Amino acid sequence: MGRSSKLVKVRAEEKPIFMRYLIAATGEQIFPEGGGLQIRDAGGEVIGAVGVTGDTEERDEELATHGIRAIGLKTDEDCATMGRRHGIRLTNR
User: Fold this and answer.
1) Which residues, other chains included, contact 22 with Cβ-Cβ below 8 Å and sequence gap of 6+?
2) Where are the domains of the chain?
3) Vertex 72, ends 58 and 37: CA angle to 5°?
4) What is the pLDDT of residues 5-53, one digit of tens each?
5) How far is it, in rounded angstroms, from Cα 4 to Cα 1?
6) 90 confidence band (pLDDT: 50, 70, 90)
7) How far is residue 4's CA from residue 75's CA, in Å, rounded to a whole number?
8) What does DSSP assign to residue 53?
9) Of 28, 29, 34, the residue nearest 8 (C-alpha)
């Protein structure tokens, strides 16, 4: 969806009917909870994603961020200055 799972959760709260449809249309493959982050290469391109669960939403994202950076890759936050042309979304707008 081009954003962290935390932002997907915010969208689900803002537009519950749309998100219920989207979840159903994907065979319930979307899980609107925090803890998931996109993984980006040095150029800001999305190359994957990782999800962490088991603690608070904030702690899960902190651990996901640590894991991404530990292998020399980047998060959306790391690439924020690259702007929209790289599809970086730190807000739901």
Assistant:
1) 30
2) 5-86
3) 30
4) 777 777 778 888 988 888 899 898 877 777 889 999 999 999 999 989 8
5) 8
6) low
7) 10
8) -
9) 34
Place of tokens 């689900």: 12
* Phi-psi group of 91: left, alpha or beta (phi > 0 → left; psi -120 to 50 → alpha; rest → beta): beta
* pTM of the predicted model as reported, rounded to 2 decimal places: 0.69
Task: Classify burial at 62, counting beta carbons within 10 Å of its beta carbon; exposed 0-12, middle 13-18, buried 19 or more.
Answer: middle
The rounded distance, in Å, linking the Cα atoms of 16 and 40 is 29
Cα–Cα distance, 8 to 54 (Å, whole number): 18
What residues does 41 pair with on adjacent strands?
A: none
Measure the CA–CA gap between 68 and 32, rounded to whole angstroms.
21
CA count, 13 A, side-chain hemisphere, 66: 7
